[in-house]
C-alpha cells in the first residue's frame, strides 16, 4: 500500500517539476524556441 502512495507522489512531484520548468522557460522566452 505504501509503495502505491510513493509511486503516486513521485508522479505528482515529477509533473509539478515539469510544470515549474515550463513556467520558468516561458518566462525567459524559451518556450517558443523549444516548441519548434
What distinguishing features does this structure have?
36 residues, mainly alpha, 2 helices
User: Roughly how many Å is the radius of gyration?
Assistant: 14 Å
Strand count, sense and closure of the main sheet?
none
Portion in beta strands: under 5%
Shape: rod-shaped
- Count of individual helical segments: 2
Structure description:
The protein has 36 residues and is mainly α. It has one domain (2-35). 92% of the residues lie in helices and 0% in strands. It has helices spanning 2-28, 30-35. The radius of gyration is 14 Å and the shape is rod-shaped.
Write the layout of secondary structure elements.
Elements: H1 2-28, H2 30-35
Would you summarize the structure shown here?
The protein has helices at residues 2-28, 30-35.
Amino acid at each position: 500500500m505504501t509503495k502505491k502512495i510513493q509511486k503516486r507522489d513521485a508522479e505528482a512531484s515529477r509533473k509539478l517539476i515539469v510544470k515549474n520548468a515550463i513556467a520558468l522557460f516561458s518566462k525567459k522566452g524559451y518556450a517558443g524556441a523549444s516548441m519548434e
